[in-house]
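name: query_chain
kind: protein
chains: 1
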Amino acid sequence: MKSNILKKIIPSLALSLMVVLGTGCGANNKADGGAAPAAGADGAITITNVSYDPTRELYVAYNEAFAKHYEEETGKKVEIIQSHGGSGGQARSVVEGAEADVVTLALAHDITLVEQAGLIESGWISEFERDSSPYTSTIVFLVRSGNEKDIHDWDDLVKDGVGVISPDPKSSGAACWNFLAAWHYADMQFGGDEAQIKDFMAKLYGNVVVMDSGARGATTTFVENKQGDVLVSWENEAIATAAEYPGEYEIISPSISILAQPSVAVVDENAKKDGTEQVAHDYLAWLYSDEAQNIIGEYGYRPSDEAVLQKYADKFDLDMELCNINDFGGWDNAYEVYFKDGGVFDEIYSR
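structure:
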């Protein structure tokens, strides 16, 4: 990675510190209302992207490229304010009034929460290609060089004496993907026997020694604070860490994982208020361009464009067996069954 991503981590707060690209006055330039686009001191249009933890570096690079593209195409300057934190927490912050023209979150359900608050129009998932998912990822393991605990698959995470680092599904989208990937593995192992699956998951989460609020915090706990034996991680986060610390970490692909599809959407009510509907749409649509897809590949996410994905195939284990959210009846059903208060996660975690 071009930036020293782990040594310059911004603390993960829902709508915490925000990075402004361009030369305006930043967050204070957001308009209070009206149809005219919010503008900085130099006349630049300002939009805010509320995203999840591990996309910080990706969007620094993407925002710079998009701003250049937009000015070349329209003659207008655009500045993008970034906000990062646990995906669930970020969604709730937008519902509670945090400024956002677009959301680029870890899973569709988090955007659905914003939709249900009346801020995003129904049908958002069809507004952009591939269910409004311009890039994907999956869940892998990160271990220290030498793999002292001999970790290769999900069943190694339930062994006595193995310390697992994984974030909290109540606040982190990555943690929800982690949980579902592990559940699917256990489902395959135990032939759908729910009692055995729940016992497996209870043992796994009984081995979790730190449960951070977001994926980046979990990476910090494992890498900087040296806690745990294995980090259950976004693939892109593991790739970045291995590149940042050459020779110190190994990426382990489990036999079964999950196709993780982060989602994007225009926050229609805010964009209408700010007069930024068109630029917000253009900002997300350009994620599917060849230039943006290459940036996505460079930063360890799987491009949605198959040709570009193959260009970066050496970064990924494309042979891994992946389930997907449809195996759980879609996100609405998965959230209701596993992650709502009193759901399966609460049941197994309280054992």
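note: Residues 139-259+320-349 form a domain with the D-Maltodextrin-Binding Protein; domain 2 fold (CATH 3.40.190.10).
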